[in-house]
Automatic annotation (TrEMBL):
Transmembrane segments: none annotated. The lineage of its organism: Bacteria, Candidatus Collieribacteriota. Belongs to the bacterial ribosomal protein bS16 family. One of its GO terms (molecular function) is structural constituent of ribosome. This is Small ribosomal subunit protein bS16. InterPro entries: Ribosomal_bS16, Ribosomal_bS16_dom_sf. GO terms for cellular component: cytoplasm; small ribosomal subunit. It comes from Candidatus Collierbacteria bacterium GW2011_GWA2_44_99. The gene is rpsP. GO terms for biological process: translation.
């Protein structure tokens, strides 16, 4: 099963995240199929940059966002 999830990048206390499509059981820093956006919680507006077209295409193919990502996108 494919999941759309957050992959942490950056320093320990300055994390930023990539929004990626990966296998459900894969490691956080493991192999990804596609990178579709970024999320930076340290900016004033918690800015999310997401490629909506890729996100929609992966959902049509059966990939499901994680609960955390689902809350952030709303």
């Amino acid at each position: 099963m494919l999941k759309i999830k957050l992959q942490p990048t950056g320093k320990k206390h300055q994390r930023s995240y990539r929004i990626v499509v990966a296998e459900d059981k894969s490691k956080l820093s493991g192999k990804v199929l596609d990178s579709i956006g970024t999320y930076n919680p340290h900016e004033t507006e918690n800015k999310i940059v997401l490629n909506q077209e890729s996100y929609q295409n992966w959902q049509k193919k059966g990939a499901q966002p994680t609960e955390t990502l689902r809350k952030l996108i709303k």
